[in-house]
Amino acid sequence: MFRLSLLTFLSALLVWSPLGAKTIDVGATYTHKHPAQAIASANNGDVIILHKGTYVVKNLLINKSIILKGENQPVLDAQMKDFGITITASKVTVDGITIKNSARASMTDYAGIQAIKASHLTLKNNILINTYFGLHLAGIDSSLIENNTLTGNAPDDARSGNGIHLWQCNAISIRKNKISGHRDGIYFEFARFCHISQNISEKNFRYGLHFMFSDNDIYTNNIFRNNGTGVAVMYTKGIRMTGNIFADNWGSSAYGILLKDIGDSYITGNTFINNTVGIFMEGSSRINVTGNSFQNNGWALKLLANCAQDTFIRNKFNGNTFDVSTNGTVTLNYFKHNYWDKYTGYDLNRDGIGDIPYRPVSLYATIIEQMPYAVMLLRSFAVDLLDKAEKNIPSLTPDQLKDDSPLMKSPVQ
Amino acid sequence: MIEVKALTKNFGKLRVLKGVNISFHKGEVVSVIGPNGSGKTTLIKSILGMVIPDSGEILLDGKSINGQWKYRSKIGYMPQIGRYPDNMKIGQVFSMMRDLRTDATAPDESVLNSYKLPSLFDKTMRTLSGGTRQKVSAALAFLFNPDILILDEPTAGLDPLASEILKQHILEAKSQGKCILITSHIMSEVDELADRIVYMMDGEVAFDKTIKQIKEETGEERLGRAIANLMKTEHHA
Amino acid sequence: MLKVTKYVIYDIVRNRVLIAYTLFLLLIATSLFNMEEDPSKAIISLMSIVMIMVPLISIVFATTYFFNSYEFIELLVAQPLKRSTILLGEYIGVALSLSFAFLAGIGIPILLFDATATGFVLILSGTLLTLVFISLAFLSSVITRDKAKGIGTSLMLWFYFSIIYDALILMLLFTFSDYPLEQAMIPIASLNPIDLGRIVIMLKLDISALMGYTGALFKNFFGNAMGIFYTCGIMFIWIIVPLLCSIKVFNGKNL
After folding, report:
1. For C207, which residue in chain A has the nearest alpha carbon?
2. Which residue of C has its CA nearest to B83?
3. Which of C208, C213, C224 to probe by mutation at the A interface, max A CB count within 10 Å?
């Protein structure tokens, strides 16, 4: 009994604190017809309930620590003239609101919701339709972006902004959002210690995920699918990517994921499926690629010669046209215990590990790097003969790039 | 009925026919004779359209056969060596030919029956002796009641009785007004059957005379000797 | 024509080589599907075998059959039948029989184990290659009277299309690697039916990799149904042209 009353008290405290906070209703039948009026008359900690209806806004400014909550998904329409909402105060919540038709311009990053230099924001359950940028956060700390749906209608790459755009942010949690039709689905620049999980970013013009200088972020269980050029991440260290799916990225510069100057990171348990290139690595070092599944990609891995000390362990390579290709003859990376479907070796002692090494770089993959049009001869009998000869006596392919202990059975599904 | 005009044919450097002119008429049996390699078979195959001549033409009832194929329904051909699909049975060969010859009128099965071939219908072609094959060929040549019969060495390989039967059929065909062309090496047979002899030599017609003329000119009763005499005079002429 | 075909088929179905060919394909296909856990991988192995074996068997079988049925052809030529009718009838008969053997030997296992788009394209490509190589077999059969020479020509053609041609292309690419060869590649591939047959399958199997090419021509070719239509169209030319040539030669041939 005592425990229950304590809980009631605490939750009451949570709702009503700080002391004296009030609820303001906004709607056609209420005193306040427009959210701007309500914000003007609100104090920090007040809750503004926005009732169902469409409200024309011209950059609705939230400069107080309030909760703006939509009842039955009210609509804020910026009529292609300005921002939807701009948040300049901390401890603001925007919940359950549809924001549409932000302005578009090349000089200003108009957005559905813009937040500047604040912390402890919660943006959740919002629907953004036809906004230039979706959520544009600059200088924000310790905030939650959850369960928002962002649908851009931009006609092309040049006239579209990013879905979730973070600049100079820390400790942002981005969860369960759905982003499509933008330039980049999720874009980070100097966003650190962020946690990105269970988002779906698809059909964006450029990248599903694009970041640079954004150290120590964690990406788990996201889906990046069918984006113009996949995922590209650069100039960053200390990333963990686990359980993500990178799929259906086709094109001459489309990658499941492009890693450029990435260091000290983990890529674990992800699935790369139906991409022109699964992972493209350039100037990336000390990356631990473990337990991933590469399926039906053109190239599972393109590993440029300026990558070093990367380890590839217990990954599954299945149904890829080429497993690995590289542009040099030396390699300083390490392959061990991977499953290669093209491995034709044997396991006499039955320990599950092939007795002869597997060389994932085929001669033909090397030839194609230099003469792309030779792709026409792919799987030709003559080419197969060449590949077989080269596998036995490597001359053009990097001698050291091999898996000395390939697995006979796949370690992952 | 058939007119061969200035027919030439070369196989590579070998000149097989060097401007041959002959005509064949209804109701006569013409025997084309001559040494091996004189061009007899090539002439016959040209008439059948199996060999395409280099120049000259062949008219059948006044129409050139060049590039034509329908005229062949008027011809029954018995090859020197009858070759048939090995896997087929005799009966199947006949039913196939009937099936293929949609143009044919009422079949003439007299030869077929004279040789009692229906009793052998279940035998495969592969197992047949040369003589039985010849019987099949002969029966096929007569089967569609053609206006023209071209018989290449018809009795070679046939036993005497079978030869006799065939000769009877040839004479009967002649009496029906058919045009019959026979090549043969057997002079007694030629004497018996032919009205006219075309002697071929090195791709040319050495002479083209009726048997009566030949015998009169040479004064020989035996055809073989008569022809030998004739060749001597032709050569020295 | 179809009557000729009827008797060709009637003769061919009892041919031991044809039955052996069907069983051989059936054996290979079923054992591949049973050995590989992943049917798509079995398809890849099957493709390599189909690309080599089907042209070889088709061309050698058709050439041999043509010479073995010379008697039958001679018999027909003396009949009131057009020569083109005889040859086309023969072609259709051999084509139907070998296609049937291929469909039974490869098609049935594919339908049972991996009835995917890739599987269907493999069936299509194998059937077209069968028809092309019978066409080529007829051409090499009519240009000579000598059986050994005919089979020799057929084997040379097979060897040329399955190995020599690709090796030459590879050398060509090495030699002219500095030149923009993109435009040339599709015509070059079109000059070899085996390459075309393989490319149609690649359009299904390796589309992820093929989409990585920068050239607009490639992308248009690989990216849509055009690729398949184009290849099928060229394959038909590969069937028709040698066949028409062999009819032309056959029409003027002395038997």
Report:
1. A298
2. C71
3. C208
Give pLDDT tens digits along chain C (255 positions). Answer: 788 898 888 888 888 899 999 999 999 999 999 988 778 888 888 998 999 999 999 999 999 999 988 888 888 898 899 999 999 999 999 999 999 999 999 999 999 988 888 899 999 999 999 999 999 999 999 999 899 999 999 999 999 999 999 999 988 888 887 887 777 888 888 999 999 999 888 888 887 777 777 666 666 776 677 778 888 899 999 999 999 999 999 998 888
**Are chains B and A in touch, 3+ Cβ pairs below 8 Å?**
no
Distance from CA of C107 to the nearest CA of B (A): 29
A155 to A79, A113, A132, A161, A205: CA distances (angstroms): 18, 21, 11, 11, 9
Complex-level ipTM beyond the 0.90 threshold: no
CATH of the domain at B75: 3.40.50.300
In angstroms, the separation between the Cα of residue B131 and the nearest Cα of chain C is 17
Q: What's the per-residue H, E or C state across C92-107? A: HHHHHHHHHHHHHHHH
- For B201, the domain range is 2-236
Cis peptide before A18, with omega less than 30 degrees from 0? yes
Q: How many CB pairs under 8 A join B and C?
A: 62
Chain C, nearest residue to B99 by Cα: C3
**Across the interface, do B83 and C69 touch by the CB < 8 Å criterion?**
no
Query: Rounded CA gap, B17 and B204, in Å?
Result: 6
Q: How many domains does chain B have?
A: 1
**Chain C nearest C-alpha distance from B230 (Å):** 33
Question: How close A4 gets to chain C, by Cα (Å)?
Answer: 58
- The distance of Cα C101 from the centroid of its chain, to the nearest Å, equals 13
The CA-based angle C243-C246-C251, given to 5 degrees, is 125
- Strand residue runs (E) in A283-407: 285-290, 293-295, 299-303, 308-313, 316-318, 322-326, 332-336, 339-340
The answer to whether C71 contacts B101, with C-beta atoms less than 8 Å apart, is: no
One-letter amino acid at C59 equals: I
Task: Find out whether A128 and A97 touch, Cβ atoms under 8 Å.
Answer: no
Strands (E), C130-199: none
Q: Which residues of A touch C47 (CB under 8 A)?
A: 379
**Shortest CB distance from C79 goes to which of B45, B51, B101?**
B101
Give CA separation, B131 vs A203, A348, B82, B102, C72, in Å.
83, 68, 10, 29, 19
**Does C41 sit within 8 Å of A319, measured CB to CB?**
yes
| Distance separating alpha carbons of residues C33 and C46, to the nearest angstrom | 9
Distance of CA B218 to the CA centre of its chain: 26
The DSSP bridge pattern shows strands B196-201 and B29-33 to be parallel
Structure tokens at A314: 């217990």
Q: What share of chain C is helix, strand, coil (3-state, %, to 5)?
A: 85, 0, 15
What length does chain A have?
413
Q: Do chains A and C touch (3 or more CB pairs under 8 A)?
A: yes
In the stretch 248-307 of chain A, residues with CB closer than 8 A to chain C read 250-252, 254, 274-277, 296-299
Q: How far apart are CA B214 and CA A305, in angstroms?
A: 100
User: Quick one: closest CA in C to A323, which residue?
Assistant: C209
Contact of C217 with C184, CB cutoff 8 Å: no
